[in-house]
Amino acid sequence: MSQIKPIELPDLPAPDILRCAYMELIVTDLAKSREFYVDALGLVVTYEDDEVIYLRSFEEFIHHNLILRKGNEAAVRVFSYRVRTPEDLDKAVAYYEALGCDVRREKEGFVKGVGDSVRVLDPLGFPYEFFYETEHQRRMCWDYDKQGAGALVRLDHFNQVFPDVEAGAKYLEHGLGFKRTEDIEDEDGVTYAAWFARKQTVHDTALTGGKGPRMHHVAFATHEKHNILFICDKLGAMRMSDQIERGPGRHGVSNAFYLYLRDPDGHRVEIYTQDYYTGDPDNPLVTWDVHDNQRRDWWGHQVVPSWYTEASRVVDLDGNLVPLIEREAPKEMDVTIGADGFSYTRKGDTEKGFKVGEQL
Fold first, then answer.
1. For the residues 204-217, what does the mean pLDDT come to?
2. At a CB cut-off of 8 Å and minimum separation 6, what does 49 contact?
3. Is the peptide bond before 248 cis (omega within 30 degrees of 0)?
4. How would residue 335 be classed by pLDDT, with cut points 50, 70 and 90?
C-alpha cells in the first residue's frame, strides 16, 4: 500500500503565486559556502553576519534570492514564493488550514528583508513560504564592472524530488495554479518527471520522481551560454572543478543550456540559460519518451548516477528532517540504463522522442 495519502483539494482560492523568489539552505560551514556562492559564483551579498548570509542575483530588486544559514546538518529550510497581493497571504492561511497542514504566519517576516509571511509544511512534505512585502534593493544589472563574465542574473527555478509525480502534479496544477509545460513518460503512462510554471518560462518548480520529499536543485540563470563556460573555467582556475557534477550541456527538456554544481554540503545548484517563452494560455505541453536519451542531454551525453540518486533533505517548520518515502513506480535511472550514452533504448527510435500538445 502506498505511503502517499490522496490529496483532497479544498474548494477555496489558493494564493496567487507570481514566481519562485528565494531558497533558504542550511549549511554546515558558512565560510566554505561563502567561497562557493560569492567568490566562485559571484552572487551579491545583501547582508551577512556570523550565522547567516543573504544573497541576490544581479537583476534582482527583492532583498535576496538565497539564504545560507549555519546549522549542524545540511538541509533545505524553505522554498519561498512571492505572491501577487498582500491579501494572498490570507488565502494561503485558509487554503492550507483546510488541507490540514501545519501553518505559521509571521507579520514581521521569518527572515530579514521580507515582511508578512506564511510558512506551511505542504501536503507533499515540503516547507513552502508565501510573501508579498519585501525590502527593495538596487538592481545591479548595469554594474558591469562588478558582474564579471559569469554573472548570475536571476533565480530561475526549484526542482523537487517526490515519489508520485502525478499526485504532486494534481496539487501544483489544480491547487496552486501552476501550468505543466513539459513531462517525461513511458508507453505505459508512468510519469517520471514534470515541469510547472507560474512565470512565463518553462518552470518555477519541477517534480522529479524519486525518494522524497527532497530538493534536487535550485537554479540561477545567466544571459548566455558563454557565461556558463566562463564559470567552468573559473572553477578550474580556483581548483574547484571537482564541484562540477554534470555538464556543461544542452537539455532536451526545456531546451536550456545547463551546468550542475555541488556546493560544499552537496546541495545541487544548476546554472541555466536560454529556455523558451510559455506565457500563452494555450502553450502546448511537450511530452518526452523516457527512452529518448536526448531528453536529459540533447547531445546524448551520459547522466552521472549521482544526478538521479542524490538530493538534499528538507526540514519541517520546527527544523526537523521530514521522513522520506520511497518511489513505488519505476525509476528513470533503472528504465534507461544504456540510454544516456549515445544510444536509444528502443529499436526504431530514430525520430524525435517527444510529442507536442498530446500525450504518448
1. 98
2. none
3. yes
4. confident
CB-based contact 54:47 (threshold 8 Å):
yes
The contacts of residue 239 (CB under 8 Å, 6+ apart) are none
Supply the DSSP string of 124-167, one letter for each residue: TS-EEEEE--B------TT-HHHH-TT---EEEEEEEEES-HHH
Q: 309: which 3 cell numbers?
A: 540518486
Alpha helices in the chain (DSSP H): 30-34, 87-98, 144-147, 165-170, 225-237, 305-309, 332-335
Mean pLDDT along residues 188-216: 97
Statement: residue 3 has pLDDT above 80: no
Q: What is the pLDDT of residues 121-179, one digit of tens each?
A: 999 999 999 999 999 999 999 999 999 999 999 999 999 999 999 999 999 999 999 99
* Cis amide leading into 213 (omega within 30): yes
Question: What is d(CA 283, CA 281) in angstroms, rounded to the nearest whole number?
Answer: 6
Mean pLDDT, residues 36-52 taken together: 98
CA distances 103 to 6, 76, 121, 176, 301, Å, are 19, 18, 7, 16, 43
Please name the residues in contact with 153: beta carbons below 8 A apart, sequence gap of 6 or more. 57, 58, 59, 141, 220, 221, 222, 223
Strand pairing class (17-27; 66-70): parallel
Residue 337 has pLDDT above 90, yes or no: no
User: Is 232 in a helix, a strand, or coil?
Assistant: helix
248 in Cβ contact with 231 (< 8 Å): no
Burial 86-124 (b: 16+ CB within 10 A, else e): eebbebbbbbbeebeeebeeeeebbbebbbbbbbbbbbb
Half-sphere exposure (Cβ direction) of 51: Cα atoms closer than 13 Å: 3
Other CB atoms within 10 A of residue 155 CB? 27
Chain mean pLDDT for the chain: 93
**E-state strands within the chain:** 17-27, 44-48, 52-56, 66-70, 75-83, 102-106, 117-121, 127-131, 154-162, 179-185, 191-197, 205-209, 214-221, 244-250, 257-262, 268-273, 286-289, 312-313, 354-356
pTM listed for this prediction: 0.94
Say what the pLDDT of residue 98 is: 98
